[in-house]
Amino acid sequence: MSKTDALRNAKSELHPRNRHQARYDFVALTGSSPELKPFVRPNRFGNDSIDFSDPEALKALNAALLKYFYGVAFWDLPPGFLCPPIPGRADYVHYLADLLAESNGGIIPRGRSVRALDIGIGANCIYPIVGTREYGWRFVGSDINPVAIATAQTIIAANTCLSGNIEARLQKQPQHIFEGIWRAHERFDITLCNPPFHASEEAMAAEANRKWQGLKKRRTAASPRLNFGGQANELWCDGGEEEFVCRMVRESRTFGERCCWFTSLVAKQASLKAIHDELKKAGAVQVRTIKMAQGQKISRFVAWSFLTAEQQAGWRAA
Question: Which own/partner contact pairs does 93-97 have at CB distance under 8 Å and 24+ positions apart?
Fold first, then answer.
């Protein structure tokens, strides 16, 4: 771990370049996005806020944030699709930029020559939006859900700042992650992924129930709703995140010389051992676990490469 990583990992705060350090400025946000205004009301401390248990309020907040900070005039989701918090998503992108800088003389590579592959772009398209608007990178995003791909394509086409910089591709072979998406002779500087967290639908429901009971929320349905939404493939898969990332590691070997860094978020600390064991079997030359923090929540991503540091240093020139 570099000195920079150690310093950042010691802090329980968002990445220094993250635009979402401060409290939400609802006056500014509703000024640029009047659609958010009906959801804003004083909380118990007398400050403007929204009901974060309301999916429609969260969607309106995300649309406002993307418009105000990233110049995305149109953003919308079909009912039931994942509507993730933008600050945490932006953090992952900024830490990826730092990772690329380490093999680029300490300078963050910017512009269209940098290509990233987002595994599981979802209907929300947020990682590519942030990466394109912050660093000018080009993105390919994959998903197994045709509706998610169609929605992402609609968002891209509706915003001139995104058109030509983000491509959404349908993964027609759900048993594969890179195969079927990664085209012949295609190279990516970095891959990213927010894998399905849960091992089963039952485990997902139990976790949601635990969280809602912890928040002392009153439930009016048979099972607690997820305020952030999400389709089945976004939230759970056989074996959960551990098996998904291990499968990604195994498949990444085929594309090892055509990528500078592979990465994936890992929510559970307990998942790391199996993933690191799989990376050792796969022959990864470099492996990093980079922590991120947002208040009391600690998250992390694993990064690996089949290239040596010397080969990575020549990546930009090549």
Answer: 93/127, 93/130, 93/131, 93/134, 93/135, 93/192, 94/15, 94/17, 94/18, 94/134, 95/15, 95/290, 95/292, 95/301, 96/131, 96/190, 96/192, 96/261, 96/263, 97/17, 97/134, 97/135
How many whole angstroms separate alpha carbon 188 and alpha carbon 137?
11
CA 87 to chain centre: 10
What is the per-residue pLDDT for 298? Answer: 83
Write out the two tokens for 27.
């006056």
In angstroms, rounded to a whole number, what is the distance separating the alpha carbons of residues 99 and 6?
13
How many distinct structural domains can be found in the chain? 1
Closest to 229 in 3D by CA, of 86, 75, 53: 53
- Could you report the per-residue pLDDT of 43-76, keeping only the tens digit for each? 999 999 999 999 999 999 999 999 999 999 999 9
Residue 51 lies in a domain: no
Q: Which domain holds residue 252?
A: 3-15+76-313
Asked whether residue 32 is assigned to any structural domain, the reply reads: no
Which CATH number goes with the domain that contains 8?
Answer: 3.40.50.150
Q: What is the pTM of this model?
A: 0.86
Alpha helices (runs of H) in the chain, residue ranges in sequence order: 3-9, 26-32, 55-70, 86-102, 126-135, 146-158, 201-214, 232-235, 240-252, 272-282, 309-313
Query: How many residues in the chain?
Result: 318
2 token code pair: 């570099």
CA distance 153 to 147: 10
The whole-number pLDDT of residue 237 equals 57
> Tokens in use for 235?
């939230």
The β-bridge relationship of strands 259-265 and 188-193 is: parallel
Helix, strand, coil % over all residues of the chain, rounded to 5: 40, 15, 40
Residue 65 lies in a domain: no
- Contact indicator for 188, 115 with CB cutoff of 8 Å: yes
Helix (H, G, I), strand (E, B) or coil at 20: coil
- Does residue 255 lie in a domain region? yes
Question: Looking at residues 190-201, what average pLDDT do you find?
Answer: 76
Among residues 4, 163, 152, the alpha carbon closest in space to that of 71 is found at 163
